[in-house]
Specification:
This protein is α/β, with parallel strands linked by helices. It has three domains: 66 residues, Nucleic acid-binding proteins (OB fold (Dihydrolipoamide Acetyltransferase, E2P), Beta Barrel); 207 residues, 3-Layer(aba) Sandwich (Rossmann fold); 68 residues, no CATH class. It has eight helices and 20 strands. It has an eight-stranded mixed β-sheet, with helices on both faces. Strands 1-5-6-4-3-2 form a six-stranded mixed β-sheet, with no helix packed on it. The longest helix has 20 residues.
Amino acid sequence: MADIVHLRIEKVVHGGDGLARLPGADDRRQAVFVPFTLPGERVRVELGAQVRGRRAARLLEVLEPAPGRVEPRCEVFGRCGGCQLQHASAGLQLELKQAILLESLARLGGIVWEGGIAAHASPPWAYRNRIRVQAVPGVGVGYYERESRRLVPVAHCPIASPAVNQGLAGLAAAPPARREAIELAVDNDDQGLHATGPLEFAVAGHRYRVSSGAFFQANRFLAAELVAAVTGGVSGASALDLYSGVGLFALPLADAFARVEAVEGSPAAAADLRHNAQGRPIEVAAADALAYLRHRPVAPPDLLVADPPRAGLGPEVAAEILRHAPARLHLVSCDPATLARDLRSLTAGGYRLAELHLFDLFPQTAQIETLARLERIE
């Protein structure tokens, strides 16, 4: 017989689940993670098995809804693994993400930040200029279910741009005959679907060639705001841009610094970076960030910008950054947990956190993009 209990949700944690605790007298009551719930809600759930020390539960009924609960816009929300927060209003989603960020910094990084967070909100729908769907013969085209490899057929995705949705509808009507992953992408003006060559993006007065396989920000509304926050308000003789991609930050940095080093390890992105950097004082290095720093002569740049993948800088790159001792360090992160770890290393090595920005690049999902601006302590 299923184990059905009533629980009170304490908070939403990194990943988007609500956290509750099983009733009992023990001060260390077992934590239970319940998806699609909000802080303060009283819910009826079916408890699942404990897996790797974590006990999940299936939401059966919301007995006392939170004030910020809304009706999800997508008909497959809850099955599709793409979104986790459509049941929360846009304003509440931003509040939840700020709380998750602060808790992650404190719990994992030992950083109690009281300086406020500059929040940058995106329009909540139709913002994605790129999606990746799966085609499964006999099933259709869509996304995988939450925590599974079963396909949820989708003909319309409310967080995707209008042109991307046109392409998705076409695939749904005439799905491919073989199993494959398909990327649908457009530029920031919602143009270029099914382009045979690279797309061209215009961001903050600069133009970028972006080839297939090269990373570029998928939110078509917030790219310019992100660039301004990362590169604005600083200038000098030299800047170092690690994990440069196609040069999203390197190009505007070249407007404010006499010399820019742009480092990118992906061959496809590095080729676009070289193309985009033509005619500017940018030295492009198609290299791994750690290898580049290890061989670079120690000459402290005025600014170091780093936008690493989800795994973050890691201890070795962080140690190399400390050795090169930039006057300012602007760190972009897509994972609060790895950001907390990296900031713990950097603040212990002589930097102080000066500004914290949260970019809601992916509304309706639990993803959090953060910019931490640090300054070297003399």
